[in-house]
Amino acid sequence: MKSNSILVILLIFCCLLISFANTAYAYLDPATGSMIVQAVIAAVAAISVSIGIFWGRLRSFFSRLFGRKNNRKKNDTNNS
Amino acid sequence: MVARIIEKKMTQIIADSGSFRDPSGHVFTKDGDVYRSIFKPGVRDFEAARDSGVYDKLIGRGLLLSHQEVNAGNFAPEGTVYCLAHPQLPMISYPWEWPFSLLKDAALVHLDAMEMLLPYGFWLRDASAFNVQYDGSRLRLIDTLSIGCRVPESPWVAYGQFCSHFLAPLAMAAYCDVRTLSLWRNYIDGYPLDLAIKLLPIWRFLKPGLFMHLNLHARIQNLADRKEHIGKSKLARKPKVSERGLIGLIRSLHRTIEGIKWNRFSKIWEDYREIRTYNTEDVARKSEYVDSVVQRLKPNMVWDLGSNTGEFSLIAASYGAFVVSVDGDPACTEFLYQKLSQKNRIRGILPLTMDLANPSPSLGWDSRERLSLRDRGPADLVLALALIHHLVLSCGVPLYQIAKWFSNITNHVLVEFIPPSDPMVQKLLRNRGDEHLPYNLEIFQSSFGKVFDFFDQKKLQNGRILFLCRRKKRLG
Fold this sequence. Notes:
heterodimer; A: elongated; B: about 20% strand
């Protein structure tokens, strides 16, 4: 739910922007309405997905880094 | 059941009455086998999906109904480029009949398929609840042609449909009343989102997912109705959505759907065995008799009408029959569905919610697009255990009408007659005086005797009698 909450905060901000630019969104059929709202949600969601990917990479980088050190330590102890 | 019949070279080819909207392809049956024609507009997407292997991946994960490419030969409709053979589904069911959790699982099947397809450059071209069916082992997408090449940077074309087919009905069922699921019968193209936000309690929109995908969505859609804007200016360009954005959107929808829980269904059914008015010996005798009838008739399709928590459905299913368990109480069908979901080894039972005094009618275009319960029959065996006294005394349906209805939907019926002296019947009659339809054993036997042959019976200690009947003739 956390990431959904962040999405909402960013969305409210986006909605404010939309409300000031309503002439651009005049006469919409419902399908266009769906496209706009999902474009806004998706733009924000893309950031959270990117953060997730970045976080995953960061974690795997550090785990590999420390994993290697641990392996080296293990190897050292085995050799000694 | 049949939209049109085309006869070619002595084989009977029947176009599926619910498959005509998509110009990419249609479903038809030939001598009972199910085929899908793919026409020119659907060829590109089909070839791309087939060659990339996404069909196999979806089928492998159990998300899509399997198919086999066959030679269209001389039986496929004109314009067919490819022809696919599908396994036959035991029973088509519709969202207005589904338990709450079945609709929820159908939504998740769509989202799982979307998340699998996006990295390969594909997506679902539509997100219709009618595209999901239970095949006897699990829920699967049945519309092979709903998988299409993703239009680069385009928003998901089926997002609006997903929200009105799944999100709005689920939220209303969970947070307004579960009986709002029957609104499906009216809104067969999905619930209007503005209706959903009017009916949902306002504090429910504190849930971020519901706020975004329902409230905000409906409000932006409603801009369309502002007539003062008509003709002023149109959307300059289509909004763009990246692949990551779409994945984020699907995950957000997933969290939102997962978060909708209906926890209020009555717990009475869990204790039903204890509150029954008859003793355990009679229950055991009844179960044994049902068991022996199923063994004797070896039915492929059983409809357990008034199934309650599905006790007798489980007996029928244990002999390999496909069982449709129908009950008017959404709490009962939800209870059974959850029980079946927890015990994955129990397969072949489909719980459906339906008021049996008002069974599912034919709906949709030309009133033939979605089939009535009767059109989906006949069953090999109907179990009508502790049912008919409700239909007569609570719903005011005369016994001869009930017998006639059974003769239209089944070849055999195992019907339980509960004598008027039974405490459950007395309970129904308590405030009725003499203002009820005639209900006794004589009338029962004469009514059923007109259309059925009685060929076996079993009397229980409590005076209830189980009659096994075979259809004599079919009335119109």
